[in-house]
Amino acid sequence: MSQPLDRTHRTEPLGKIDSAAGEFWTHTFEMPKRGDNLSAFEPNKLFLNVDGKRFLNASFASQADIDSDSRSVMVGDFDGDRAPDLLVGSVGGGPLRLFLNRFPGEHHRVNITLRGVESNRSAIGARVTIEASGQTIVRDHFAANGFMGQSPARLNIGVGSARTIEKLTMRWPTGRLQVFHDLPVDCDVVIVEGSEKFELARQDAAN
Amino acid sequence: MLGYANSLLSSNCAAVDMKQLWIPILIVLTIITAISWWYRNSTPTQPSRSTSNFSSLDETKQKEIWDAEHATFEIETYVGQKLISALQNRTADRLGDCFRRGFEGDIPGRSHPSTVEKSSINETVCSADSENVDAGGFIEFLIEGIGDIREMQEGRFRVLKIARSKKNGKNTDEWQLSVLLTVGGLTSQGSRITYDLAGRMSCRFSNDDDIIAGKIIESWRVDSETTRRSQKPLMEEATARFGLDRLPIADNWTSGRDRIRQYRFQTAVEDFNGDGFLDIAIATADDKEFLLQWNSASKKYDDITAIAGLPLQLVTNNRAYLACWFDFDNDGDADLLLGETLYENVKGEKLRAVSNNGGLELEFNPMGCVVADYDADGLLDLYVLYQRPEIENHQTTPGWVSDDTTGAGNQLWRNRGDGTFIEMSRTARATGGNRHSFAAAWLHANDDHYPDLYIANDFSRNSFLINQGDGTFHDSATEAGVGDFSTSMGVAAGDIDADGKPEIYVANMYSKMGRRIIDHVSSDDYSEGIHRKILGSCAGNRLYSNSDERGSNSDERGSNSDERGSYHELSEQLGVNAVGWAYAPAFIDFDGDGLLDLYATTGFLSFDRRKPDG
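^ Those are the sequences you sent over. The predicted structure of the assembly is below.
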């Protein structure tokens, strides 16, 4: 990496340079002009959480391992099948590229739509804790912005093989707690702050 | 690419006492500083020929590092290509051309592999029951290892570490390397497969010609052989099908080299019109803006920028190209901050500029913004991140290895509920300390319902603003053990192990060469605390966890082991460290098993696949 702070500076090499093979030592920082690669063509990574204690590098199988200087990633369900997809922003190779979720398996999901009343209406800052088939899942409800790209705030929660959510604890942004029991999966659940019942919406995946 | 060494030999970045800091600062930190510097300045400043900063640099060590990097380049280029092409053709004799007479191999047994299966991916690792083999046995092992790869699509041979052996204090022709061989492709059934061989190698050569001839490998000890197979692709690209393939947004790969940019646009995704489908707002650094709406009839995105009443040209006096949806007026639809203009959503049909911009006055070149109701009053507030002031207020170049606080303060805009905002960052102690902020993530770091904020900073430690619940924040990055020095570009938070304590994943700069060079220096070479920061500057991505069951795992790559707080850094242990020159990460449960997975973007500037990389 040849980017001295002073771009006009030249350094005498301390050893051999294999210019024929493209080795560049004495360049100043002239990447655009000379087209020198810097951390170039690095594929984006996709890591699968195996058991909360280690991740499996699944980039090679993802098709989302594009190597075009990506900057942002927006996560959301773009095709309405409740599985999260990726919209990837890059400065090369196409500005926005959409990758739809095609993960195999029979896992169930639930979309939880929150409506704050005392809390902000979008319920940004809520925490949802789910207990289903012996598994506990904790999600904080924010619109993530990892860098230069904001994802929609959604609680799109996978529950594995569970066919029902035994217990759901809502902590609203104001701090109010609410507990719900026996919620279905593979559907959209609407929860309104202060209301003791939840509503069901859209039980079949739309296309 | 070895030009790295140039930066370590040619900086004029004075200001701080760099006498003992030469290499690392220049290796790693200058990359970023130089790059940001370069992008700020369209014309070079006065040329300077001074190299006085390096007068204290030990010449022998300079030369050693230079030689090692040169050797790396030659080995990766010539021996690497030879190995890859021989593997591709399965030609045993061509592979044999790389091994010296008397070659000693050390290979793991394949009878008791450890296996992981997840989402139709099968990973097999062989690392135990090793045995010694000769060249023939080693070649047989290699060819057998890649036996299932019918069509090889990629192959790389990388030198991760390199050091010259010495005898009686003098250089020998023998070199010790840590190497990684990766090949990947398709099986005969057409499914994806990758093969990684991590190990140590001993090479002997007296000059470049020896390397070019290729017969230099004396021994190769394999530490682990990893094979990963996938039955089917996990995702499917739908860019063109959804009508996103012809967006009129400039692209470095087609724009021409005089129009290269590090960043080009910000994007925000929400359901603008309440039809249940996601819409996309974009603001670009060259002053364009777009609103793309999902059309359920054509099943494509339509450009409705003008229809929604947005100007096609983004108006900004501050180089602001923010994109952020948030329902600031609590009426149930998503309002939009685009560029630096706040728009109110009118019935999911129009976006109407809010009068007086709601009082929002942005500073120069905001990097992004994040939304939460920090004071729990039922109104969404806005936190805006800044890198540096428009006119920098320091006379000298900042000390990059210190905790640089010459950036711009971030803004906290409190929503007053009457359609206006008021800036509270100083009262709330939420500026982040002028640390060149790039990105931030709200999370619930503790048991209260007030949201906390982790901020990824360039050039300095990161910030961890714990919400005190009284309208103020306390930066506890150091005591919590999450403020390690690094050059951070992105951050995500999510609870990976369901204990109610979200993990924090920070995207950092990482450089292959930086890692290699840093292996040549030690804490003896630097004054107190500096070495740790240097290590941190090519640390790779970090994952902080404060789960109770995790043991202490303070690493040697810049973590504050002596100041370790409640968090542990676990990126290597969890296998999420080596991403590259990383930007936005995201936690996502891809496979619906209830466990959050990760996606991590990376890559700085790519120009030519035929040229070497740096």
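Chain A has two domains: 47-99, 108-203. Chain A touches chain B through 139 residues (CB under 8 Å).

Shout if you want it in another format.
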